[in-house]
Description:
binds manganese (II) ion; single chain; eight-stranded mixed beta sheet; globular; binds adenosine-5'-triphosphate; nine-stranded mixed beta sheet
Amino acid sequence: xxxxxxxxxxxxxxxxxxxxxxxxxxxxxxxxxxxxxxxxxxxxxxxxxxxxxxxxxxxxxxxxxxxxxxxxxxxxxxxxxxxxxxxxxxxxxxxxxxxxxxxxxxxxxxxxxxxxxxxxxxxxxxxxxxxxxxxxxxxxxxxxxxxxxxxxxxxxxxxxxxxxxxxxxxxxxxxxxxxxxxxxxxxxxxxxxxxxxxxxxxxxxxxxxxxxxxxxxxxxxxxxxxxxxxxxxxxxxxxxxxxxxxxxxxxxxxxxxxxxxxxxxxxxxxxxxxxxxxxxxxxxxxxxxxxxxxxxxxxxxxxxxxxxxxxxxxxxxxxxxxxxxxxxxxxxxxxxxxxxxxxxxxxxxxxxxxxxxxxxxxxxxxxxxxxxxxxxxxxxxxxxxxxxxxxxxxxxxxxxxxxxxxxxxxxxxxxxxxxxxxxxxxxxxxxxxxxxxxxxxxxxxxxxxxxxxxxxxxxxxxxxxxxxxxxxxxxxxxxxxxxxxxxxxxxxxxxxxxxxxxxxxxxxxxxxxxxxxxxxxxxxxxxxxxxxxxxxxx
Length: 538
Ligand code: ATP
Ligand code: MN
């Protein structure tokens, strides 16, 4: 159901420096859908969803993400090539140029909020150049009631001008596109890119600073859902590892698919009000919840359709990162409001393209800390056939690009909360089996779902040593049996049919882990350091 589809309220953007603009305030998604098509910026797919092209950028651009170095941030941020400093004066000058660019235009503004838990509610005003970007904001952020809109006081502002191109030399950016966070002014300034994900990840990054520093709450790049008995499960993982896919489970209520906070009041809450799913190779059969969420109100990004508006989800000619955003109520089984209790199980999802990590294994608390700090997944080299080497990719806290603080700060909070809550932590390889990328295959989604279900149903013996095999290289506890999954699938070595090749590849990954962990070693306890892969296999 569409919320707050009408409001008589109007706002002026003059105090933002945007003059002479025609401001459309909190338009309904159906109005934005219509206006987008009228302007020739999108078309309607046969499902009723709006289909747009985001332009030059079809994904985030981490190298163009900056944080203004000021009194609030200078001593707190983990500066480096993830959190790149930006001068305050340069920000002011660039901001002036952007609002000048937006002046006199038709502008789409929306008041919304982040954080489903009332104690953490963060009001946001988003100012968009394009109608479909504003519809994305409707889909992805939380939607205030009409009464809440009347007295709305924005705390953070997102200024989003995809058509504005920066002049790198003058403006201090790397190139023409940029996403800059200013904590003093509470502004996220996004320009030169139409990729909608920059808007949501901008606010996520801001909250990843504010919540731990000011509110003692752990922000997490994870999805979450809730079982019948009220048991919460959360799924950490980097892009493409399965957070959105695996959290959409008809037997469990969805809390959220990407960003959550874990409070000291023992709750887990969603930051957002919608989902942003990958659409590549989507089928009704394997992902029915997501497939059926694609209807009027949803926005498809960068997909290819035939003349009847039927999407070919296998067509990646624009990008591999085709997406669809929809408000969370497009999913049938959801928790309202999007809040759960302390998690009972935590899953670390990794798409291991080396094909050597077990498809599921149980971690000790030290191993959990080690893997959280490491944040391993793999990037596959390309889409061409043939044997290309997969690249290990490590991203601390399974979300380094959005984490402004040193990873150890999030890791400490997580370890403490896990201990207090007595959670079980599982490492799930949603990547390759039977060999590395190019030789093996991606593990079947139905097997991954069966393994997760077994955990959630308590079907793996939790303390019985005999139920597990301790992996000789990674040291993790690999269940021997799982309902709905052939025994051999549970042992990566068994799926390879070549022990020597398997161990060789496993050691390769071990070395990559060790190399990556060096930069965290001085901050990690002896116990956590021992949580990593074991040096000797035999
Ligand atoms: P992002 O942070 O970018 O939103 P995500 O973690 O939410 O990423 P998903 O959108 O869930 O990632 O993408 C997982 C993709 O991998 C989907 O396209 C899914 O169909 C595919 N997939 C294939 N096999 C599996 C598997 N065994 N488990 C999970 N996902 C799988
Ligand atoms: Mn996702």
